[in-house]
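Dear colleagues,

For the upcoming journal club I promised to circulate an example of a predicted protein-ligand complex. I picked one with 2-acetamido-2-deoxy-beta-D-glucopyranose because it came up in last month's discussion. The inputs are reproduced below in full, followed by the predicted structure.
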Amino acid sequence: MNVVLASFLLALVWPSDGLLWRQDAQRDAHPRLASLIASLNQTARLKLGSGARSSAPYLRSLEATLLAMAQNTSQIPSQLLHGVKSDVMTMVSNELKPRIITEHSQIQSQIAEFSGLFAKCEEVRGVGLNESYSEQQAIPVLIANHKACRKQESALQDRLSACRTALQSSRLVDASTCESARLLDRIPEASVCSALNGESAEAYHQRMLDVFRDRLKNIRIRRLLCQNTTGALHLQESACDTQAREVEEQRTSCNLMQRQLDASACDLSMSMNTTCSKYQACRSQATLSYDLVRNTVKARESNLHDEWKALKHIECILEAMVGSNIMSAAQECGRAIYSVAHLMVVYITMPPCQACEDLAEVPGTADYNATVFADIPANAPVTECAASCCFT
Ligand SMILES: *[C@@H]1O[C@H](CO)[C@@H](O)[C@H](O)[C@H]1NC(C)=O
Ligand SMILES: *[C@@H]1O[C@H](CO)[C@@H](O)[C@H](O)[C@H]1NC(C)=O
Ligand SMILES: *[C@@H]1O[C@H](CO)[C@@H](O)[C@H](O)[C@H]1NC(C)=O
Ligand SMILES: *[C@@H]1O[C@H](CO)[C@@H](O)[C@H](O)[C@H]1NC(C)=O
Ligand SMILES: *[C@@H]1O[C@H](CO)[C@@H](O)[C@H](O)[C@H]1NC(C)=O
Ligand SMILES: *[C@@H]1O[C@H](CO)[C@@H](O)[C@H](O)[C@H]1NC(C)=O
């Protein structure tokens, strides 16, 4: 008998409080039979012990006893022999075989559960990618809005530059008109009032009147001109100030848009990475525990096969013991091949581990700048990235 039978006899069905054999004083009269019963009893009681002890010695004696009995059944009353056979057969078919079949379906379902576990990992990944996908769809809109904002900022900046250029020339004009007003705005030198040679008093006064009228007119005109250009300059200045404020306001709102864009891209990159690490953790955990479980199941499966074959062998010997040609039938039992096809465990194939997806353009990188900030006008420059992934 196979030594592996020990494990099922230890682990399975034997009632712990002694065997259920019919107590039969007749059995004690036959030493071989008594020894068989005692072996079974000891094996059964082993189950109560630490579990570490092997029942192999008892099983070997069980097998030896059975074989010896098979050779010597003529000495045992046939009725007694049939009683023992029927007891053991009943035990084998009612308890030991069903236990093996139950345990086979238990280990089979342990393996089958892993299909679900691996599928769960794929689902974790799928859900994560779907979330990323909807986040991803929002980003092109943010990019386009930001770009339009910077273009508007650039146009306002152009207008402001033109305003400042005009302001510059207004300043020059104003400086020159007011300078010429200042030059004229003075009391003439005494020599202006001297009479010409031989000039009559009347001619002199007439000439002086003309000179002073001209001078006065010039003083007034120049002063008005200066006031006019200064007034124009102030208007220009305030126009440029207003435009500068508009540029600032536009820039503030573009910076805000950029911040939103950077943050969204950052979140997307982060959530893709999170999905990836969750998936990898899920896979490695599932793989690790599947390997562990598969190893124990394989060992258990192989034991179950051996146990099944051993039970079939016992049944065969018992059958031989009550037959007519005992010795040749017992030898047949030794040569027989017992199928364990119904006790094969079907193992799962692990689905291949998917490669991780991550965002190529992470804010702060050259790739991001090249993709997201392409065609941003130079006079409306983007601001520093303030998103969390720019500080790692
Ligand atoms: C089994 O062994 C125990 C303890 O040695 C004993 O009390 C019991 O009677 C035995 N049972 C049989 C069926 O021999
Ligand atoms: C049959 O059993 C008896 C006692 O149990 C033993 O003395 C004898 O040798 C056995 N015969 C055979 C053929 O094994
Ligand atoms: C992902 O989204 C697609 C289409 O929106 C859907 O068919 C699929 O079931 C989703 N997958 C998961 C895992 O949620
Ligand atoms: C300046 O003079 C021009 C005509 O010479 C006139 O049209 C304009 O209104 C004046 N501007 C101011 C601010 O006085
Ligand atoms: C995501 O992972 C990639 C690749 O490991 C890395 O370059 C990137 O910085 C990560 N993103 C974030 C937001 O940490
Ligand atoms: C990308 O642009 C930002 C401005 O938002 C700048 O601070 C950063 O240095 C750029 N990165 C690279 C790699 O060019």
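Two points we might discuss: Residues 18-19, 21, 37, 41 surround 2-acetamido-2-deoxy-beta-D-glucopyranose (ligand 1) (CB under 6 Å). Residues 3-118+291-351 form one domain.

See you all on Thursday,
B. R.
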